[in-house]
Write the structure tokens for this entry.
Amino acid sequence: MRTAIPTAPFLAPFLALALALASTLACGGGSGSGSSSTAAAAAAITSFSAAQPNLAPGQSTTLTAVFSGGAGTVDQGVGAVTSGAPVTVSPGGTTTYTLTVSGGTALTATTTVTVGSQVVTYANLSGADLGAGAGLNGAIPFPHDNPWNTDISAAPVDPNSANLIASIGKGTGLHPDFGSGPWDGALIGIPYMVVPGTQAKVPVSFQYSDQSDPGPYPIPADVPIEGQPVAGGSFGGDRHVLVLDRDHNLLYELYAAYPQADGSWQAGSGAVFHLDSDDVRPTALPGWTSADAAGLPIFAGLARYDEAAGAAGIRHALRFTVAATREAYVPPATHWASSDTSANLPPMGMRVRLKATYAIPTSFSAPTQALLQAMKTYGMLVADNGSDWFVSGAPDPRWDNDALVSELSQVKGSDFEVVQMEGLVTP
């Protein structure tokens, strides 16, 4: 056993000084080091982006900066910003915003918001071009206050949101059900055609005539049919036909449409929508179908390239499909297509939105960013039974298929939430 040797009193001050010096050296010493053994984190900028980089005059967007290790400020009168918290800006013209993060060496990042001259017109298609896949030149079906065009970014979340999203797939990514060129011989997406008010009308007979708007319909002989092979030949599928009469602001839609030798058409069902009114289908009764399983207008929810790449962006909700739905619907839908009554399955017309906390990657292509911003602002409506998280759109040779598929697949079901449902209709 060792015996402790007492320290001589006159050595105590020297030992204390030595211990203090050793402690200081171990902590790094120097001015401002304090008692911490960890150096201050260096400033870093993860991302700085505008939610909608292309605006029409008078529009607003939000800027979101993600950074660490210092305080952030944005010029152009924005001021101090918090990491991850969006701030609203309303630029009078094309503006480049600079983020500065102080903390050691100051770091900067920029993002540009382009203000274009595209004019948005609601409920009036008179300025639309003519033909298959024609541009609408800023025209948007239905009035500004229509459910399709309503900003729901601040609406309450449905209490059962988590279960409803789980039923569609939290880990499943979005998939574009549209694109450029053919897939399996047919153009990818649901085509449409814009015609003048003078377009000749032809008779149409319906399998479900009791829930269809009677003809005649202004259907040209060369109207595109969904699923039609580019090289010709027989085909099946939904065979939707969408025709917009720009001069009368009417939308004609057919499901399971087959042209006949005498110029008439046969279809499973058909509907006529008034694009200049909130009474979108005055002939319909509750419970009626349309050319869509939800009783909704198909065209209103299509992703179109002219909007996704335009200065004004996409100013309406989109439509999407899910594999399993409930025997119920919520307005603006008017029809269900299921016999399952589980409250954890989505009814037709249920609206989801991309969460506000989801930061749209600036590395994504501009059309994809526009699609995602629309999902934040206007959401997506369950419109039909199909593959989970398949987003509907119109074919266009300008879509970049690789970008759409790779970018949208990174956005998962867990990034969405269900907007509180009101007016649910059940059996």
Q: What stands out?
A: Helices lie at 12-26, 161-168, 305-308, 366-377, 401-408. The mean pLDDT is 89. The CA atoms of residues 77 and 262 lie 67 Å apart. The first strand starts at residue 44 and ends at 50.
